[in-house]
Amino acid sequence: MPDAIPVFDAADDAAAMHKALAQSGAIIVHDFLAKTALDAFNAELDQIIAAEAALERRFANPAIAEFFGDRVGHVAALAGKSPMFVEHLLCHPLYLATCDEFLGASCSDYQLNIAQVMERKPGCEAQISHRDAWVWKRMPPTVGEIQVASVLALNDFSFDNGATLVAPGSHLWEGDRYPEPAEMVAAEMPAGSAVIYLGNTFHGGGANVTTADIRRGIHVSYTLGWLRTEENQCLSTPLEVLSGMSRRAQELLGFGVHDDIAVGGGYLGTVELEAPCDALKTAPASQSSPSSESM
Ligand SMILES: O=C(O)CCC(=O)C(=O)O
Ligand SMILES: [Fe+2]
Q1: How far does the centroid of ligand 2 lie from the alpha carbon of residue 204, in Å?
Q2: What is the pLDDT of residues 195-219, one digit of tens each?
Q3: Which ligand is nearest to the CA of 206?
Q4: Does an H or E element contain 233, and which?
Q5: pLDDT tens by residue, 11-49
Q6: What CATH architecture is 7-258?
């Protein structure tokens, strides 16, 4: 029998959660999102999903389409589309405290890597077990933790409707050990909870064997500020939406600089030698919105 995934409440001591996360590679946190925010978030997403219903999804590589299968619905580029995501999740204190703890030693600041709604629809098969940090396959292991990841339950997650399956302790496995099905535990949890895991923890979306229960989750992860992100937040967040966000939100979306001067390094990501979020404030209109002739 695999170990269970440790369960906490969002009001619990963050240090205890981090200890459990370091040991198990995954934790479940109940009440990560309060009920009123959850309901408003779902109402907002219903509209976004309806508006995108006719969208024909094209993937950069067919292997990614295979990875998700044709029974998973996505809403990508959430920061630009969902004010609820920006207000309630992007800067969630527990995400930031967990990133401080696990990523803080390897960067001057971290950033959002990906934020996508993933609806696992009836009939969808279990995803292949994987480590999310494999997107940076060439990363030397000496760098340490490079990713804090999560799936937030927007409705109740059950084994039957495709709850995320996690292999507790697998973030510490060495070599090419790969989880057996019996080593995977379903992150069953009520709506508003999140399963938080490290980039090297084996996991995957579960099969949805129900006839009508669409499992709605949102996959949110953060990575070191000096790594390329899976979703290009700078290009997918419209500047007029960005300008209404807090500076911290803008930084987490990649509009800050990665400043390693304090450790004898340098700057990454400037625009006109400034942090992008500052440069965009002072840029003449012609620079921030190029005309069609100049493109
Ligand atoms: O939707 C889920 O439960 C997990 C999704 C996932 O692991 C991924 O897309 O990398
Ligand atoms: Fe994953």
Answers
A1: 5
A2: 999 999 999 999 999 999 999 999 9
A3: 1
A4: helix 233-236
A5: 999 999 999 999 999 999 999 999 999 999 999 999 999
A6: Sandwich (2.60)
Q: Give the number of the atom of ligand 1 that is nearest the alpha carbon of residue 118.
A: 1
Query: CA dist 55 to 42, 49, 74, 218, Å?
Result: 20, 10, 10, 19
Report domain extents, the chain.
7-258
Amino acid 288: pLDDT: 47
Round the average pLDDT of the chain to a whole number and report it: 94
CB 204 near ligand 1, within 6 Å:
yes
Residues 253 and 237 sit within 8 Å (Cβ to Cβ) = yes
Q: Ligand 1 within 6 A of 118 CB?
A: yes
For helices 93-103 and 14-24, angle between their N-to-C axes, nearest 10 degrees:
50
Q: Is 73 in the pocket of ligand 1 (CB under 6 A)?
A: no
Nearest residue (CA) to ligand 1, atom 10:
132
Q: What does each C-alpha distance from 262 to 1, 65, 191, 228, 251 come to in angstroms?
A: 47, 42, 42, 22, 18
pLDDT digits (tens, 9 = 90+) for 231-285: 999 999 999 999 999 999 999 999 999 999 999 999 999 999 999 999 998 765 5
Question: CA-to-CA distance for 262 and 66, rounded, in angstroms?
Answer: 43
The CA dihedral of 12, 21, 126, 124, to the nearest 10 degrees, is 30
Ligand 1: which residue has its CA nearest to atom 1?
205
